[in-house]
Amino acid sequence: MITVTCRYCDSPTIITNGRTKSGQQQDHGTACLFSGTLDTKEEARKEKEHLVEKLHHERVSQRGIARMTGFNRKTVVTLVKKSRSHQAARQKDPSFARKADY
């Protein structure tokens, strides 16, 4: 049997509470009164962001990256700028990689 626990308090006492607008199951934790979805898409987004950085290093165009990942082109530009600033910081300070929290 699979037991689902709350994201915040790890309590197994969860009640289903309908669906969100996007169709995800919404839950209500009775112990901590948390209300929301238990399955976040955070990890999938981080993987896509890493893919954007990798494709940019392979010199794929920004529009091509947007088509492959499903991100908006402006989002791709923002992620590329962010990765460039991290690279510049790494070049200035070699211990930056140990300080940064990915």
Explain this structure to me?
- The chain is α+β, with helices and mostly antiparallel strands.
- It folds into two domains: 1-40, no CATH class; 42-96.
- It is built from four helices and three strands.
- The chain has a three-stranded antiparallel beta sheet with strand order 1-2-3, with no helix packed on it.
- Helix 1 (42-57) packs antiparallel against helix 2 (62-69) and helix 2 crosses helix 3.
- The two termini are 34 Å apart.
- The model has no long low-confidence stretch (mean pLDDT 84).
Give a quick summary of the entry:
The protein is α+β, with helices and mostly antiparallel strands and 102 residues long.
